[in-house]
Design goal:
Blueprint: H1 4-10, H2 31-41, H3 54-57, H4 102-111, H5 120-128, H6 131-141, H7 167-173, H8 177-198, H9 207-217, H10 220-223, H11 228-237, E1 257-258, H12 272-280, H13 296-303, E2 315-316, H14 338-347, H15 369-380
Antiparallel strand pairs: 1-2
Helix pairs in contact: 2-8, 4-8, 5-8, 11-15, 14-15
The protein binds heme C (2 copies).
């Protein structure tokens, strides 16, 4: 049984409220936008080899991850694919937080040579070539621009800051500023559609949530949802093991950046220290003309995020909801199982040395074998994959004859 204090604490983790509003995306709650976004999410036509979609690395049956250590799209990626469960609750996106909205995040993989390997001009043309998608786009955003004049809208192209002579950059430079803006508008709308879909990937009725409800209404059936071992695991999580220092609140993440001292592979991944610099100069950040709230939200959010504040090696605290179905773990997929994660925090075996300038939040919490088993049982009680089946696959093609 939990003490009254522990019961109070449990309420800080459940229930998970509705995802926060996103005023930077005018269509974030639009169901037509979500349905079209869902079709785009599973569509391989927006990749350079015609084989990669978002679902390649965010497979619904694999916890919206890919089960791989490191991601692979058109080419190999140096980081582990993140789960998309409860992604709409995030403040910052990617392991290093280099994006500040869900719609702007989606633009990254499309133009990343290792993921979709495409470019915004190819995306806009691929859309223009698919009448059923243009029809659905028009219903959400109004007219789709005419991009058929190839002297104004080259077949492929995007800004490539680091390579001024890249053919994509050269093609982009031939365009007028107005035509570039037209392409950027459709491209950012593409991201807003994907965001509207992903916002629905919510998981908030895990056995732990049922148990916390049971604490409130004293319903023995609900209280039985959490085994005695998992209950002990919770008291460790928010007690002796001090996981809640970072994995705090109803998403089980403080949504900010820390080092948990997990050792990384070759090379140095600066994590948030670089991500925050990239975010400030991102042409699609929340302060850009493409944010539908006129930049109101981002100005505050970006201003309170100073440059050079983060030390290298900090990554976003992942949510722990559905963590039992999203192995392997960490930004490079360094750890294969939950048992190994718990063993790591318990002993810090193989940990990277602490950065002398860094936080001092991680210490070996030294759990006994029985305590480790309890903590694992608790983490396993955070699973809820009851999302309706029709949201886990490409939508059924609309029957045009009956529309
Ligand atoms: C090649 C595999 C791959 C493809 C394809 C891919 N992703 Fe990802 N996704 C990743 C990886 C890897 C990360 C983490 C990358 C990083 O931190 O630099 C990620 C991160 C994310 C995140 C951030 C989650 C968070 O909590 O911050 C979202 C959202 C996301 N992807 C959505 C998408 C969408 C939408 C698409 C399709 C347009 C897509 N991904 C295509 C591998 C992929
Ligand atoms: C100092 C903050 C902090 C503390 C304390 C902490 N974590 Fe973490 N945790 C993180 C960060 C940051 C990551 C991601 C690290 C990375 O990828 O480099 C992480 C990753 C994880 C992951 C992997 C999730 C995934 O999707 O890859 C699990 C599981 C986890 N932590 C569980 C725990 C448990 C259990 C405890 C308590 C024993 C704990 N954490 C304590 C910050 C913390």
């Amino acid at each position: 049984m939990l003490t009254p204090e522990q019961i109070e604490l449990a309420r800080e983790f459940s229930p998970l409220p509705e995802p926060p509003a996103d005023p930077t995306n005018a269509v974030y709650e639009d169901l037509d936008a979500a349905l079209l976004g869902q079709a785009l999410f599973f569509d391989t036509r927006f990749s350079s080899n015609g084989e990669v979609s978002c679902a390649t690395c965010h497979e619904p049956a694999l916890g919206f991850g890919d089960g791989r250590k490191l991601a692979k799209g058109v080419a190999h990626h140096p980081r582990h694919s993140m789960t998309l469960w409860n992604v709409a609750y995030n403040r910052w996106f990617f392991w290093d937080g280099r994006k500040d909205s869900l719609w702007s995040q989606a633009l990254g993989p499309l133009e990343d040579a290792r993921e979709h390997g495409s470019s915004r001009l190819e995306i806009v043309h691929a859309l223009a070539d698919a009448p059923e998608l243009v029809r659905a786009y028009t219903e959400v955003f109004g007219a789709f621009p005419n991009v058929s004049d190839s002297s104004r809208f080259p077949a492929a192209g995007r800004p490539v800051a680091e390579q001024p002579r890249h053919p994509h950059q050269v093609a982009w430079d031939t365009m007028s500023a107005d035509d570039q803006r037209t392409v950027n508008r459709v491209f950012t709308n593409f991201g807003k559609l994907l965001a509207a879909y992903q916002r629905q990937l919510v998981s908030r009725r895990a056995p732990f949530d049922v148990f916390v409800e049971g604490l409130a209404d004293n319903d023995p059936e609900k209280l039985a949802a959490l085994s005695p071992s998992a209950q002990r695991g919770f008291t460790l999580f928010a007690g002796k093991a001090a996981c809640h220092i970072c994995h705090d609140g109803p998403t089980f993440s403080d949504l900010e950046f820390h080092s948990n001292r997990v050792a990384t592979g070759e090379g140095v991944d600066p994590g948030r220290a670089l991500g925050v610099l990239q975010l400030k100069v991102d042409p699609f950040n929340g302060a850009s003309e493409f944010a539908d709230d006129g930049g109101a939200r981002a100005t505050r959010k970006l201003q309170i995020t100073p440059r050079g504040w983060h030390i290298p090696g900090e990554f976003k605290t992942p949510s722990l909801r559905n963590v039992a179905v999203t192995a392997p773990y960490m930004h490079e997929g360094q750890i294969a199982t939950l048992a190994e994660v718990v063993h790591f925090y318990s002993t810090l075996e193989g940990a990277a040395p602490p950065d002398p300038k860094g936080e001092k939040l991680i210490t070996a919490v030294q759990l006994t074998d029985a305590e480790q088993a309890d903590l694992i049982a608790f983490l396993e009680s955070l699973t809820d994959e009851s999302l309706p089946a029709e949201l886990r696959a490409a939508p059924a093609p609309a029957d045009n004859a009956t529309r």
